[in-house]
Every structure is written in structure tokens, then in C-alpha cells.
Amino acid sequence: MQFHYIANAPRTSSSDRTIPVIDPSDGQPFDELQRGNAADIDLAVRAARQCYDTVWCKISAAERGRMMMRLSNLIGEHAEELAAIEQRDCGKPTKQARADALALVRYFEFYAGACDKLHGDTLPYLDGYSVFTWREPHGVTGHIIPWNYPMQIFGRSVGGALAAGNVCVVKPAEDACLSLIRVAQLAAQAGFPAGAVNIVTGYGHEAGDALARHAGIDHISFTGSPKVGTLIQQVAAVRHCPVTLELGGKSPQIIFADADLDAALPMVINAIVQNAGQTCSAGSRLLVEQSIYEPLLERLGTAFSNLRVGPAAMDLDVGPLIRASQQQRVWDFLSDAQVAGIPVVAHGQVVDEAPETGFFQAPTLLRDVPVMHRLAQEEVFGPVLAAMSFKDEDQAVELANATQFGLVAGIWTRDGGRQLRMAKRVRSGQVFVNNYGAGGGVELPFGGVKSSGYGREKGFEALYGFTTLKTVAIRHG
Ligand code: NAD
User: Fold this and answer.
1) How far is the CA of 332 from the centre of ligand 1 (A)?
2) 64 CA → ligand 1 middle, Å
3) Residue with the nearest Cα to atom 10 of ligand 1?
4) Number of folded domains in the chain?
5) For 72, which of 16, 59, 108, 472 could close a Cys bridge (C-beta 3.0–4.6 Å)?
6) Tens digits of per-residue pLDDT, 107-166?
7) Residue 225 belongs to domain spanning
């Protein structure tokens, strides 16, 4: 049985209800979570406020950094344990689960070093005045986290918030809480005072909604679907609570005829099969210059046919999807594509050892996907790559920008001028040229435009979002 972690102590929910924890590799329940409600959220927010007002506000930035570094080290010491937890909870192949644990180590390392580097400015003003700005924490920040990368998203969101001097109440996704409960215990061991890091598990419409509505929350960091992002904004707008939204994507990989295909293809494949395609920044659209479209699809098709899918512990190319409804969602996209006559180039294989009750989906490459088809417009959140061709730079830009999203774009070309022209013209929060960072890069500011959200997390930039600026003007004559 798992518990909330509030004020450095395990707590049961006042709902007296639990949520089963399902292993995506076999579809079987193996644990239970507390089904948190508004009363549990209120308890956590009060604990956080008490901590902020009485203890946290007296801790220096340098000491906060040391605390965060101790936590980074502890997470490192427990990386294998955390990876094993995440593997079973989320169905992550071993390599991915380990990478997530190590990214969490790195987030806390990065933000540990950033704590005492954040400062305001002195400003020129009238004669006889001194004016300066302070970067102040919001206070109690709320963090609503999705199931696809719990540790990584906790690292970037909670890591940034703590570094900027906030205390945190976290509502992980109901499908993926276990690693974060463990990390909160490690935070207590690292010396974080009671109330600095609190975890309340539960459903989005109950605990998540209560967190977004709570009057004691001073800032909300939400990572999840555009649909819920809209709800969060509406709820937050009522009390003018600032929000950072990290939403979905339909990110293009744009390949020109002069690209180094030997370098591009493994990254194009990884960008869509990593985490079974359940990555907000997955490279889910492939735009290829006409003259190399056929040979490139042939090479890619061969590579897709060789991909193997199976239980997380087998550590194959692809693990299971998170849950049955996600598997059904992917099937719906593929059956719509079939009805529309969209050709399948190739797909991978689910291994015989995979239990029938697991949520497996073979990676699938489709070609000539019409730009307005939902496969080219909506987030599948599964290992499905939609390919189409373009004739020149202008058409590549038009196709790249032809969705509601704008999170990440990949550009593959050896032409330096084109690299810069394309990077400027593509509408997205990040552009990778001759590489692709699906989820990577602790140091790199990350976030979207359009329906991919607003605000930036990761990197030093995140600290500006987790603080508010106060201007102090002193007239001294
Ligand atoms: P989701 O929006 O369903 O859930 C995300 C979180 O919101 C969960 O913790 C959930 O419990 C909570 N939630 C659900 N309804 C809520 C409500 N009414 N009020 C408050 N909280 C609520 O998304 P998901 O299915 O968990 O994750 C997949 C989505 O997240 C995809 O669209 C993906 O692109 C996006 N995502 C974006 C990023 C990014 O950084 N841009 C990263 C990961 C995932």
C-alpha cells in the first residue's frame, strides 16, 4: 500500500479509498495508491504554507543549494531502485527507466548550483534615487504531473521551483506515482524541512482539480494534455493565479535531400519509439524532400520491421503503453488511417513472450499522410510515425507549421543558410538542427507556442517563471 507524503510523513487519504496500480507489461494490479481528495490537498497546502512562512523563508539560497545537492546525490545512490520502481509502474524498458532516474539526478544537480545565482538588477532612474529589483519566490507552488516521465518532469518542475525558493505540493498522475513518493522520502532524508515537498496522489478530476482551485496555491505548473490545460487555465483565471503550461506536440522531423541520413535515421526512429511514443516532444511527423522520399522510406521501413516490442523487463526497443485506454486510442488512430486508405510502410513485432494482457503496440510507419488527416494533426501518443513529402523549403515550412502545436522541430540539412532560415521560420519552442532531443537537455529551456503551452521549464530560464519580480525605488536625495 502506498501513502501520500505530506510534511515528511506518510498519510492515508481522508477518502478511505484507493486506486489500483497496474503493471502495463501484464495488465495486472500489484499495489494501491491513496485516492486523494480536496481535504488531503488542503492538508498538504497548509503544511507547505507553514513550512514556507516559518522555516523555508529563513534558509539561505546557498543552504538550499546544498540541500538540493544532497538530494541529487541520494537519488544517484538510489537510481537503480528508482529505475526498477518506474519500470514496473510505467512499463519502461530498463534503459529508459535508468535514463529517467539519472536525468532526475542531473536536474537536482543543475538546480542545486542555480539557487544562489538568481538575482535582480539595479536600474538607472532619477537623480537622488536608487532602484533595484528582487526576484522573489511565488510561495507555495502546485505541480500537476503526467504519467509519461514522472521523474524527469518532477525534476524540471519541482527542481526549478525549489531552487527559486518555493515550496511544493505535487499531484502525480494516477497511473504513475510510485517513484515520486519514494523521491519525497529521499528529500526528507536529504534534510528538506517538513512541508517543503509534499505528494498527494489521486485522480485529476478530484485531487488535481482541488489543487488547481486551492486559494493557498500561488503558482501552478501543469504538464499534460491541452484539454486539461484549458481547464487549469479557467480555474486559475478565477483567482488570477499564474500558470505554466507544458502541453502536447505534433513535432516535425524535416529531412532535406542533402542531409546525412546515416546520422539522421537512428535519431528519427528513436524520437518516435522512445518511451513507446508517449513523449510530448516525440518526432511524430516526418517531412521528407521529394527526391529522397522513396529511398528514405525504404530504409526506414526496414528499420521499423526490425523493432521489437515486449515487457519492460526484457529491455527491448519498445515497452508497453501505459494503460488499456491508451492502447485503444492508438488503435483508433490506426483504424481511421486504414479507412482513409493511408498506406502502412512497415511495423515492428510484439515478441511471443509478451503477455496478452499487456498493453503492447508495434511501432508503425505510415506514408502519404494527408496534412489535414488527424494522424498528421493530433497527438497519437504512441509509436506511430506519419510521413509525407515536400518539394521545397517553403512547402516544408508550411507543412511543419500546419498544426495547432508548436513544441519541438528537427531540421536535417548540411546547408548552413537553410539551417538558419528553417530554424527561424518554424514555429516551435525548440529547434534541433542535425540532432533531436526528445525530452533531453536539462540545461535547455523547454516549452511551446500555440496549443503546446506557454512558459518555460528546464534550464536557468525556468527560474524566472518560478519567481515574481519586485521593484524597490528608494528616494534618498
Ligand atoms: P492529462 O492531461 O490527462 O493528465 C495530466 C495530469 O493532469 C495528471 O496528473 C492528471 O491526473 C491531471 N488532471 C487530469 N484532469 C485534471 C483536472 N480536471 N484538473 C486538474 N488536474 C487534472 O495528460 P496525460 O494523459 O497524463 O499526459 C499526456 C499528455 O501530456 C499529452 O498530451 C502530452 O503531450 C502531454 N505532455 C506534455 C509534456 C510537455 O512538457 N509539454 C510532457 C509530458 C506530457
Assistant:
1) 20
2) 29
3) 204
4) 2
5) 108
6) 999 999 999 999 999 999 999 999 999 999 999 999 999 999 999 999 999 999 999 999
7) 4-247+454-475
